[in-house]
Amino acid sequence: MEKIVSLCKRRGFIFQASEIYGGLNGFFDYGPLGVEMRKNIKDAWWQDMVQRRDDIVGLDSAIIQHPKVWESSGHIQGFSDPMVDCRESKMRYRADQLFWAAVVVDGDILGYVSLLEDEGMEAKAAEMADTLKRKLQRQGTLQPIQLRPYTEASPDLYDKIPSPATGKPGTLTPPRDFNLMFQTYVGAVRDESSVAYLRPETAQGIFTNFKNVVDSTRVKIPFGIAQIGRSFRNEITPRNYIFRSREFEQMEMEFFIEPGDGWKQWHEYWIRERFEWHKSIGLKESMLGYQVHPKEKLAHYSQACTDITFHYPFGVQELEGIAARGCFDLTQHQNGSGKSMEYFDDTHKTKYIPRVIEPAVGVDRTFLALLCSAYEEDEIDGEPRVVLKLHPRIAPIKAAVFPLVKNKPELVEKAKTLFKKLQRRWNVAYDASGAIGRRYRRMDEVGTPFGITVDFETLENGTLTLRDRDTTKQVRLSEPELLAAIEKNLQQDL
Ligand code: ATP
User: Fold this and answer.
1) Cis bond leading into 222, ω under 30°?
2) Fewer C-beta neighbours within 10 Å, C or N terminus of the chain?
3) Whole-prediction pTM value?
């Protein structure tokens, strides 16, 4: 993870927001390469989910909506995470990410240990338990540690569980709900009547426009409405770089279907489709997985939910959620607004509120997964190299043009002309400084799939060398052959 974070800063993918002022926790800025790569991710999603499908249309709704939207959707009342404070250190934790266990020796409880959720927490907790046992000079057998989240601690334990910040018990508060929505005021008057919220998800803008889309287009159920846009959540503990931030971007699609048992097939269908999509943009299958939410953990309206997970350096985590939300959202908005959300099926002459399947994925989480999946270190001609093996569709720079030397005007001229020509089609780079090997490495490190070298032979017969990032193999081609080769590769999944 550290290597990826440092590469992102060094090469201009991601910067800390407001860095010169010390940064602002949970916010990030995307640099010149980052903005290209983000755009490529969003374009790929939009092309595959909207443009190339006959049954999905797009939407771009406002970030700030009428506060009643969030009342009806249940966000004002229930969009919260459990929070716990340490009174002494003033640290604040998400109660479901703070784990604790009793340290038990031969049936006696010696005390408790606590720590924050991470991949190696079981082993760490066992070590902490062993340390406590030794400190208390207690003989006997330590029972295996059973970690549980703080949300599952009974109230009599709040005083006994130590704070992860201080290691001492008695300073943690009981868990309480913390609403994640950012509040603001609309207009010049700042009172209760002007309170509004930055959207915590893009989905509600889709539901509130359901009727508008049905009435203004020729969509017929089953169909979907897709949207890409910024969302904001005042996360209690933003962490793991861009994985959990306070401002992020979502790519969400609501797929409307008729009532009945058919939702199961559609749910399966979208789980498969989305899994294949993640593979198609270059995520290694071995790093992807599924997590089916157990029935008892689902929201009351939810019929089923399956996450597509990714094995990030900090553990296996949700990349995308595919939820079967029933008719909850549309019904809530119908009740809240008094406007009918019914769909008229003119084939069967029936009216109903559609059911919905929602695949929702974060741009930033996809971005991080792509970097983790693509990052490799290898050796070329005995020299270590860092390479991002990004899919050509995702790579921020598609090709780089290198004049072999920079002090031969005809050669530079030729290289610049080719560069200008390529620029009309793709985001490409021009690099004339330093040894050619170093220039290749610079491009390998940011995932550029192709290097094009203009050399002395180019001046003689017009041929150029095309270097492949992954194999580092070079071939000599005429200009039309080279353009065709790049085009073919970039289009491979189109
Ligand atoms: P989590 O359980 O990790 O908080 P969630 O289940 O609340 O996520 P959803 O509401 O299902 O997330 O949002 C859909 C997608 O939006 C997630 O799968 C994720 O990719 C992205 N996402 C959600 N919250 C964040 C965040 N704080 N930072 C970055 N991406 C996020």
Assistant:
1) yes
2) C
3) 0.92
